[in-house]
């Protein structure tokens, strides 16, 4: 009786020793060297795996950061300058400093200003309805309102405003990963610099039609009148295809263009109210809700 | 036992309301809007300018490449502008706007040429003229016809199929044309046989057009090379691959063309246009359009100049009736709902269908109950429910493996789905993305 116990103990111990030896040999023989820096850098990254940097996930980005000599054109939009600074310290490589950006919706075509002329009955997806036709309104450049951008946002930074039928970006949550920019079949969403206190000025319209036709489809459409172009002191406004575009690189946020726009199609966000100097201050339609300031 | 294709297919209510209505000639409209992209392939290049005077049949936009087509002025008049006009696609596209010259008689003459049987041109000349005269497939796909006739020497070809199936419900344009222009179509078939150097032609007609079958049978007695085949009524028999299978029992390989099995298919409307081009020097400037709908006062068939706004057609049949929900260009199965009645008639417009509220609305999509109806009706032997799911979940590589690209977009799956799932919408979406991905790879 005691023999059988003894035998089994010895047998199992031997088996264990053999298995341990095999494992030891294999682990030495097939050892894969991995730069410990990769794990270290990965720790620093935000682990959002959003692919906003262009790599498929944070791990892959960490490998790229460690593996490339010149990382000045690599950037994690989610972590921003803070994370990139840490990465720079960990790796001892130069990183570029970028202004933080945020997604903006360049369309103000709510149900009120842009009347529906047809009704779409297909599946609720912008990409599919864009395949079929130009949308429920007469504007073939504006938001389709089926929320593809909201669906792809991994950070809950967007929602559809029931009242206007347009998507809204929650600036504080937006990590500027760029998923929504790719998802939008109309290229309405743009990444623009966030500036201090999230001050932004941009043209909220993409309609390339001639003024009259654009205005007929949507009362806040850019009609390409060039008034903003004329008044801009910094030549930051480009007129192309009956459409104004404010180049964020040159724009100094002086706000001179906003009141001259006859159709209120230039959007300003989070500016303090204007001083009551002008004869008739224009009320600008705001697509984004005014959020409490993070540092206010 | 009537012939048909073996796999799948549906039989929606035929509703051929206008099958007894003779084709009336619609007077030339005051203004025509001629889009430069009325065919599959490269858009044509505009060669006229504002204020130019154009004669009827003059080339106003030249073919932009091999798979492209010339576009001719459907009326004599003055080019008033080159503008962006909304077309069947739902987007604004480049158009040539011509104001009709009310004094020019050529705009209003009744075109009724005597039948001309002798074929004087050589095959190469015929193909060249078909290309010059802007003839495209009038069945709906608008594929430039000369491309189908340019056959390399090493390809074996033994049969020409003439598509007179018209399997879409409501539409009767081809039916009426076959009845009224039987002799001309037979000459057109001979022209095509001459151009393709084949000795056999089959006209495929569905059995709900018995008068047309009869007309062709009596007239083709003297011409033993042309057969007439009656087909069982089943949608989508008018699809090239289905028709070849039904008539000759040959399977066109997937991603292949009928030419791969030695067949070329042309629509009867195209054949008539070819007859007009070869025998009477008439470029493609007008076509037969069925204007129909259950609530319409007097639905009918018309000879319509290319570029006529659809609202003119709807007015001609008594205006848009109350309770209209949709106006569709084409048939109810494959047609496209229009965004506005300003859309002009193009070479591919076979019908205008005015649908009322009760017929138009789509049911609320529910969950898939795995009944397999879509699989059993798919004429291409695909699994529509699977393709939809894959497209919805962005699994395009898997969808490509499941042959999403062979879908002919006939819509039978969406038609039968008891849960009203938008199968075709998603499959079309998946096809588009797959096409993009594949072109990126190459």
From TrEMBL, chain A:
Transmembrane regions: 6-26
Annotated positions binding [4Fe-4S] cluster 3: 153, 174, 177, 180
GO biological process annotation, one example: electron transport chain
Keyword Glycoprotein: no
Protein name: Ion-translocating oxidoreductase complex subunit B
Regions of compositional bias (Basic and acidic residues) in chain numbering: 275-289
4Fe-4S domain ranges (all copies): 33-93
Family membership: Belongs to the 4Fe4S bacterial-type ferredoxin family. RnfB subfamily.
Subunit note: The complex is composed of six subunits: RnfA, RnfB, RnfC, RnfD, RnfE and RnfG.
Location, primary (coarse class): membrane
Pfam families: Fer4 (PF00037), Fer4_7 (PF12838), FeS (PF04060)
CC cofactor note: Binds 3 [4Fe-4S] clusters.
Top-level enzyme category: translocase
Amino-acid positions noted as binding [4Fe-4S] cluster 2 in the UniProt annotation, renumbered to this chain: 139, 143, 149, 184
Gene designation per UniProt: rnfB
GO MF term list: 4 iron, 4 sulfur cluster binding; electron transfer activity; metal ion binding
Keyword terms, alphabetized: 4Fe-4S, Cell membrane, Electron transport, Iron, Iron-sulfur, Membrane, Metal-binding, Repeat, Translocase, Transmembrane, Transmembrane helix, Transport
Region (Disordered): 275-296
Electron transport among keywords: yes
InterPro entries assigned to the protein according to its UniProt record, in alphabetical order: 4Fe-4S_dom, 4Fe4S_Fe-S-bd, 4Fe4S_Fe_S_CS, 4Fe4S_Ferredoxin_RnfB, Elect_transpt_cplx_RnfB/RsxB
Binding annotation for [4Fe-4S] cluster 1: 50, 53, 58, 76
Automatic annotation (TrEMBL), chain B:
Membrane topology designation: Peripheral membrane protein
Predominant cellular place of this UniProt entry's protein: membrane
Family annotation (Gene3D superfamilies): 3.30.70.20, NADH-ubiquinone oxidoreductase 51kDa subunit
Location(s) in or outside the cell: Cell membrane
The 4Fe-4S ferredoxin-type domain, residue ranges: 359-381, 398-427
Pfam family, one: Complex1_51K
SUPFAM superfamilies the record matches: alpha-helical ferredoxin, Nqo1 FMN-binding domain-like
Known cofactor(s): [4Fe-4S] cluster
Keyword match Translocase: yes
Keywords, comma-separated and alphabetical: 4Fe-4S, Cell membrane, Electron transport, Iron, Iron-sulfur, Membrane, Metal-binding, Repeat, Translocase, Transport
GO cellular component terms given for this protein: plasma membrane
Residues that hold [4Fe-4S] cluster 1 according to the record: 368, 371, 374, 417
Gene Ontology annotations of biological process type: electron transport chain
Binding site for [4Fe-4S] cluster 2: 378, 407, 410, 413
Described purpose of this protein according to its UniProt entry: Part of a membrane-bound complex that couples electron transfer with translocation of ions across the membrane.
Family annotation (HAMAP family): RsxC_RnfC
Family: Belongs to the 4Fe4S bacterial-type ferredoxin family. RnfC subfamily.
Alphabetical list of NCBIfam families matching this protein: PRK05035.1, rnfC
Name listed for the protein in its UniProt record: Ion-translocating oxidoreductase complex subunit C
Biological source species: Flagellimonas nanhaiensis
Gene: rnfC
């Amino acid at each position: 009786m005691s023999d059988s116990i003894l035998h089994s103990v010895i047998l199992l111990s031997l088996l264990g020793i053999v298995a341990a030896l095999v494992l030891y040999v294999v682990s030495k023989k097939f050892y894969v060297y991995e730069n410990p820096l990769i794990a270290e850098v990965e720790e620093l990254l935000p682990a959002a795996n959003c692919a906003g940097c262009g790599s498929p996930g944070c791990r892959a980005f960490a490998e790229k950061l460690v593996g490339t000599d010149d990382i000045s054109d690599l950037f994690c939009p989610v972590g921003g300058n803070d994370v990139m600074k840490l990465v720079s310290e960990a790796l001892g490589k130069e990183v570029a400093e970028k202004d933080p950006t945020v997604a903006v919706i360049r369309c103000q075509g709510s149900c009120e200003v842009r009347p529906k002329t047809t009704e779409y009955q297909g599946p609720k997806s912008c990409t599919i309805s864009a395949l079929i036709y130009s949308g429920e309104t007469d504007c073939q450049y504006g938001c389709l309102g089926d929320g593809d951008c909201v669906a792809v946002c991994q950070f809950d930074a967007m929602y559809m405003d029931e009242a206007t039928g347009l998507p809204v970006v929650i600036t504080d949550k937006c990590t500027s990963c760029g998923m929504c920019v790719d998802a939008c079949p109309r290229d309405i969403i743009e990444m623009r610099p966030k500036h201090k206190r999230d001050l932004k000025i941009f043209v909220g319209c993409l309609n390339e039609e001639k003024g009259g036709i654009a205005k007929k489809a949507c009362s806040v459409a850019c009609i390409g009148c060039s008034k903003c172009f004329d008044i801009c002191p910094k030549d930051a406004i480009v007129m192309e295809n009956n459409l104004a575009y404010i180049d964020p690189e040159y724009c100094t946020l002086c706000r001179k263009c906003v009141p001259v726009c006859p159709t209120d199609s230039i959007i300003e966000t989070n500016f303090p109210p204007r001083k009551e100097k002008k004869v008739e201050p224009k009320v600008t339609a705001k697509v984004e809700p005014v959020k409490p300031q993070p540092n206010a | 036992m009537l012939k048909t294709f073996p796999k799948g297919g549906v039989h929606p209510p035929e509703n051929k309301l206008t099958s007894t209505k003779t084709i009336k000639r619609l007077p030339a409209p005051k203004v025509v809007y001629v889009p430069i992209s009325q065919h599959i392939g490269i858009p044509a290049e505009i060669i006229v300018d504002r204020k130019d005077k154009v004669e009827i049949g003059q080339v106003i936009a030249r073919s932009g490449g091999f798979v492209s087509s010339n576009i001719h002025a459907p009326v004599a008049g003055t080019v008033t502008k080159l503008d962006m006009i909304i077309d069947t696609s739902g987007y604004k596209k480049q158009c040539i706007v011509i104001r009709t010259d009310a004094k020019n008689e050529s705009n209003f003459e009744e075109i009724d040429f005597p039948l001309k049987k002798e074929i004087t041109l050589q095959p190469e000349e015929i193909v060249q003229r078909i290309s010059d005269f802007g003839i495209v497939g009038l069945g709906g796909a608008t594929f430039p016809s000369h491309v189908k006739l340019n056959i390399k020497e090493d390809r074996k070809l033994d049969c020409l199929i003439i598509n007179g199936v018209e399997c879409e419900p409501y539409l009767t344009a081809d039916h009426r044309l076959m009845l009224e222009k039987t002799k001309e179509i037979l000459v057109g078939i001979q022209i095509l046989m001459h151009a393709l150097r084949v000795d056999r032609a089959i006209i495929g007609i569905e059995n709900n057009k018995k008068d047309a079958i009869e007309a062709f049978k009596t007239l083709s007695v003297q011409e033993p090379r042309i057969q007439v085949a009656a087909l069982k009524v089943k949608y989508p028999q008018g699809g090239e691959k289905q028709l070849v299978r039904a008539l000759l029992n040959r399977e066109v390989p997937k991603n292949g063309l009928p030419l791969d099995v030695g067949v070329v298919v042309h629509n009867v409307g195209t054949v008539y246009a070819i007859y007009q081009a070869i025998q009477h020097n008439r470029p493609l400037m007008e076509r037969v359009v069925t204007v129909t709908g259950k609530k319409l006062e007097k639905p009918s068939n018309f000879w319509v100049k290319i570029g006529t706004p659809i609202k003119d057609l709807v007015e001609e049949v008594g205006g848009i009736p109350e309770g209209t929900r949709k106006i569709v260009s084409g048939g109810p199965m494959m047609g496209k709902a229009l965004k506005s009645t300003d859309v002009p008639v193009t070479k591919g417009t076979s019908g205008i269908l005015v649908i009322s509220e009760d017929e138009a609305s789509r049911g609320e999509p529910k969950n898939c109950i795995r009944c397999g109806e879509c699989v059993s009706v798919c004429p291409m032997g695909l699994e529509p429910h699977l393709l939809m799911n894959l497209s919805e979940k962005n699994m395009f590589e898997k969808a490509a493996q499941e042959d999403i690209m062979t879908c002919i977009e006939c819509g039978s799956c969406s038609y039968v789905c008891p849960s009203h799932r938008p199968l075709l919408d998603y499959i079309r979406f998946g096809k588009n993305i797959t096409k993009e991905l594949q072109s990126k790879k190459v």
